[in-house]
Model the fold of this input.
Amino acid sequence: MENTFTNSQRAEVLVQAMPNIQHYTGSIVVVKYGGNAMINETLKQQVMEDMVLLSLIGVKVVLVHGGGPEITETMKRMGKESVFIDGLRVTDRETVDIVQMVLAGKINKTLVSLLAVKGGRAIGISGMDGKLIKAAPKDPKLGYVGNVTSVNVQPVLDLLEKGYIPVVSTLGCDDAGNIYNINGDTAAAALAGALGARRLILMTDIDGILRDKDDPSSLIPVMSVSEARELQTKGIISGGMIPKVDCCVTAIEKGVKKVIILDGRVPHAILMELLTDQGAGTMIQA
Done:
């Protein structure tokens, strides 16, 4: 589609965004990247552009990524079946090696390369680097699936101070050298809390939190932690949305100002959320 913006209109857009730019410049924003925005090539390019633009205007962005579908596909090619319990991948010793290869290897370095192509300066790390994310077994029946026990933010702060975009894969470790597969939302919430981030953005494949799951017009744009708990009790927040909302609440309890469950299917959704008055999802705040 031909770009019909005049130079004057472009300048006006920048002026309108200026208060939001001032609000976020120098602040830490953690983005959990996954879902359709990670699979759809056009959306992937737009997310990278959003990250680079925010970095260029002085926002300290941290990109946390998962990669469940690609892990499943790699396991399938290697003749290993994926088994899930309550939405979590059962991770034996062989599986955790595959998870490490796909997350800390292929996906992480691909994202670093894409950010570089867009003009960004990015360095990829995992939760194992610098003992960024220490973990312990979540449940014996899940194998090497971890709960976050502590976060050492110094590696991320060092990269941000030097002007890099840290790209973090959601692996953890313990003092014995074991590696753990950690849910992406859980890892992002723990990291955002430890960093004292101004915003945590969880990219999803849905509109946000709906009062009626079958009615997109029932989107709840803003809610408090207490309202979120009430909607859980009433069963309005249910299924796979429960652990996601729990991560939002955890992040806020750890000091994150606001958490956004963002519709990652919307083009440039991150910029819309941070630099305009029109969001693309549900914001949860204290």
User: Anything to note?
Assistant: The two ends are 41 Å apart (CA to CA).
